Amino acid sequence: MQPLSSSITYKPLSRIAPSHFYAMVQCPYKIVLAEAFERHPLIPLSANAYIGSVFHKLMEKIVKRQVTEDDFNEIWENEIKSKEDVLRQEGIIFCIPLKSHVQNIGLKKILIKNQIKANQNLPVDKSKNVEYFSEKWLQNEDGTVGGMADLITKYGGTVSISDFKTGKLTYNMVDESGEVVSLVKEEYEYQLKLYAQLYFINYKTYPDHLYLVDMNKNSIEVDFIHEECLNLYKQAIALYEKVNIDIKKKDFSMLANCSTASCKYCLYRPACDSYHTWLSSNKSTNDVYGVLTNMKKFLNGNINICVQADGNNFTISGISSLFEDLLAKNKNKVIGLYGLRKNGENNFSIASCSCIKEQEAMNIYTLYAN
């Protein structure tokens, strides 16, 4: 069977973004595939990911004091409508309306709205000028490392860079004494410290503070020293150069680094030969890759299929009858199914972001139930 990599048109990396650097350190091939597919995910994002960008914009406006409690609801609705319009233009309609596909959206709305009052209560010395620079582009001299900093604030002679996150900012671990400690996620530290170095490259001075801000208006200051920012930057440049050399040689053998952490939510895993090999001995992701051996249609229109992989038979249920012809065409052929819902041992069903890939044609379709 011809490997998938032979049918992909690879492109040299144009740049490394601070927001992608950590992922690239973990698995360079993920970013190579993202570049090859022009950053268009092969697996649909969840509604939570799309609504996250709405939350992000609202949090930014609140920090800049551009939203009041009186006009919050109107701005909330406008931002959601704007995002839905973009999704429709891109042909992504499975998660529209967003409000119907995001759990606890009412609670999340309240959490964001509460930030308005909290932000208004922060002391501001009106004698000191405050400048906000949102979505500020920062890059090095040749543009090989660059990205958009969420918010740069200049106040009272100090400069801070803030990055907004809709998820958890920290993770817990047990230290040597047996105590549970909370640490900032490493990928967020990498991102902010790279922005600090890019700021230095542009303005010949480092920012004074780096902040992570979540939906609850929790703000964590990330400690840093100039040397570690520079070292991360040098690491990014070295990785950029190495990966582009490997792309030119078409040598991808050392770029893929498969693990549950790297692969489970990778949006490009349907195109990764290494992942499919790794999947045969690792069942920690809700994906199935094998031969479609049987299919059965029920009176309600739903279809169940059986896929054989590595001597095991997997059942996938709840597929819409709209995909009957596609499944019939691929019977006794290798297919990949991604983002399934696990119901039991070797038993899966279709979830909101499930998709199927034809091995021979490299076509990917989003699946759904009737």
TrEMBL record:
Gene3D superfamilies in the record, alphabetically? 3.90.320.10
- The PD-(D/E)XK endonuclease-like domain is annotated at 16-273
Transmembrane stretches, start-end: none
SUPFAM superfamilies reported for this sequence: Restriction endonuclease-like
The name under which this protein is listed is PD-(D/E)XK endonuclease-like domain-containing protein
The organism's lineage? unclassified sequences, metagenomes, ecological metagenomes
